[in-house]
Structure formats: structure tokens, C-alpha cells
């Protein structure tokens, strides 16, 4: 009787901890997006987008050599997005091949893993991991697409007239890169799920704590931006070329 009770709790532990871990991640990102839309200056995403817009404005006001260097920066970001998209697609292909394999020897079906190790559960874990990587691939592809569009706009003769379009494309590319990275974070949690629901749940809590301190800037950072905004009028009168 005791053995049956232990097996029952071990088998259905995934039904409790895994949804709770995913819920924690989703609720945190809903909170982050709400704060970003209501108070963008209090999140690292809003501050980075602000810096990107200022960067585009300074590039368009600078000399032609500054534009050439800016194109190199955008090209580097495009290469990073393309590389991450390739990695995500490669991992998705490997998981798809693994799902199509008929081999019954699976290390994740070991009895040492405290959780549901039935074949159907392993199949669902692979599907969830595959979906996370495919979302990451789609986001990185869209990021590269927007950054390539920035290169076209930067190289156009009337680039100063398309400043708003450049700002929009740069921030859009950064947003898609952000979503792609967050999809990889979710994929990391899905990967830990293969070792049991407890590691996945603990990793979700730890990841939310780490991401909170990364996404929500501190008071000192806020004061730094306020100080820079206060000095903006003085620096505008100085003139000069754009610098990195």
C-alpha cells in the first residue's frame, strides 16, 4: 500500500510542479510587459530602446564615416541573430530526429529520475522543448529580417528622411531578439524537465529571480539616466561627430 502511494505521487508530481513552474515564468513576463508599457523607463527593455533611438539620431546627424560604422554594428547584430536562429533550427531538427527514432533505450526513462518517466511523458517533454526552440528560431529570423531592413535604410541616399523607420526597425529587431532569448530560457527549463519536475520547478524560481534583477533596473541606474538627461542640453551645444 505504501509502495503504491509513493509511485502515485512520483508519477503525478509533473502535473503539479511543471504547470506551477511555467505559470511563474508566464506571470513574471506578463508583469514585465505591463511595466514596460506603463513605465518603460523602469525596465531595462525600455532603457535599451531609448538608447537605440538616441543612437540612431546621433548616427544620422554624424558624418558618412559614422554611418559606415553604424552599418557594421547592425551587420554584427544581424550575424548574431542569424547564428542563434541556426542553432535553434539545428536543435529543433535533432529533437525531431529523436522523436522519429524507434529506439527504446532512453536514459530519461531511468527509475533514478524522480518524476513521470513513461514514454508518453517523454514524448510530451520533447514536444514542449521542440516548440520552445521553434519559437526562438522564428523570433531570431524576424530579428535578422528587421536588422537587414535597417541596413537598406542606412545605405539609402535619403536616410535622414527615414529616421523614424530606422528607429522602428532597430527597436523591432531588438524586441524580437529579446523574445528569442526568452524562448531559449523557457527551453532551458524544458530541458531540465527531462531530469524531473523538481529541477524544472526550482530552475523556474531561480530564473525569475535572476531575470528580475536583470530586467528591473535599480535606483542607481535610474538616477544615472536622469543625470544624463539633465546634461543633454549641454552636450547638444557642443556638436561633434558620433562616437561609440
UniProtKB/TrEMBL annotation:
Q: Which InterPro entries match?
A: DUF599
Q: Which residues form the signal peptide?
A: none
Q: Which domain of life is it from?
A: Eukaryota
Q: Which residues cross the membrane?
A: 12-34, 122-144, 191-213
Q: Name one Pfam family in it.
A: DUF599
- Could you list the residue ranges forming a coiled coil in this record? none
Which keywords accompany this UniProt record?
Answer: Membrane, Transmembrane, Transmembrane helix
Q: Please identify the protein, giving its name as recorded.
A: DUF599 domain-containing protein
Amino acid at each position: 500500500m505504501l509502495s503504491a502511494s509513493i509511485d502515485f505521487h512520483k508519477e503525478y508530481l509533473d502535473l503539479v510542479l511543471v504547470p506551477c513552474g511555467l505559470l511563474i515564468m508566464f506571470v513574471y513576463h506578463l508583469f514585465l510587459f505591463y511595466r514596460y508599457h506603463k513605465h518603460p523607463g523602469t525596465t531595462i527593455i525600455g532603457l535599451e530602446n531609448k538608447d537605440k533611438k538616441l543612437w540612431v539620431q546621433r548616427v544620422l546627424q554624424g558624418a558618412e564615416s559614422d554611418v559606415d560604422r553604424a552599418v557594421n554594428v547592425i551587420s554584427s547584430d544581424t550575424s548574431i541573430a542569424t547564428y542563434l536562429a541556426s542553432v535553434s533550427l539545428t536543435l529543433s531538427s535533432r529533437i525531431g530526429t529523436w522523436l522519429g527514432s524507434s529506439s527504446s533505450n532512453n536514459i530519461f526513462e531511468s527509475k533514478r529520475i524522480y518524476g513521470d518517466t513513461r514514454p508518453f511523458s517523454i514524448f510530451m517533454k520533447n514536444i514542449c522543448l521542440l516548440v520552445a526552440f521553434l519559437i526562438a528560431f522564428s523570433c531570431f529570423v524576424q530579428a535578422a529580417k528587421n536588422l537587414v531592413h535597417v541596413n537598406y535604410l542606412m545605405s539609402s541616399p535619403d536616410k535622414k528622411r527615414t529616421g523614424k523607420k530606422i528607429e522602428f526597425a532597430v527597436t523591432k529587431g531588438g524586441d524580437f531578439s529579446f523574445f528569442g532569448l526568452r524562448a531559449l530560457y523557457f527551453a532551458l527549463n524544458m530541458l531540465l524537465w527531462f531530469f524531473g519536475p523538481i529541477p524544472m520547478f526550482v530552475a523556474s524560481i531561480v530564473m525569475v529571480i535572476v531575470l528580475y534583477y536583470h530586467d528591473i533596473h535599480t535606483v542607481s541606474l535610474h538616477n544615472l539616466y536622469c543625470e544624463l538627461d539633465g546634461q543633454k542640453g549641454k552636450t547638444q551645444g557642443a556638436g561633434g561627430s558620433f562616437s561609440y
